[in-house]
Predict the 3D structure of the following.
Amino acid sequence: MDLKIPALYQQRIAHLLSSGERRILGLVGAPGAGKSTLAHALAMQWSQDIQVVPMDGFHLANVELERLNRKSRKGAPDTFDAFGFIALLKRLRIPAADEVVYAPCYERSLEESVAGAIAVQPSTPLIVVEGNYLLLSDSPWNQVQALLDETWFVDVPQDLRVGRLTQRHQQFGRSAQDAADWVKHTDEPNARRIEAERAKADVMFRWDA
């Protein structure tokens, strides 16, 4: 699907790229808001300038979530390696000329993170980081925003977002009832925490802008 980035946001990308230095753009929003879709669209339009690094690569492994008795809440703030994510952002902020930084990704078909899956070249001027908790006030997540040059809150109607989310869960193996239950009891409590921080974002992103 070819998604056209509205002119308002194209101008903001151009401004970030004009500095001549490494910049990091954060895309934040509730589960199902379309952060990954937007990140992909940006990377397609500026293919020589942008590398996407998802926060989801820092999901704790399922075996660790089971040990911590958190697997039923997978996706909550305390089910990620937040300190590891922050450490990666610090490395990405100041690229070394001869250093490729490898970041993890999250493989939905496995429901696990894959280490070293994303190669960030030192010459890439703009890193797009997308994730749920880039603006969260809780420690250590409250360190993240200072490591970003700009944050966009991805804003979509609630019914559209919940519908997408339910469909995604079914696509990856949940029954219709299990998907609806997971959205209600796990995703939506997280969504409310994320929405409560939206005023911290620099920009509200809407496709119809």
Notes: The mean pLDDT is 92. The helical segments are 7-17, 35-45, 62-67, 82-93, 158-171, 176-195. The longest strand covers residues 112-120. The first helix runs from residue 7 to 17.
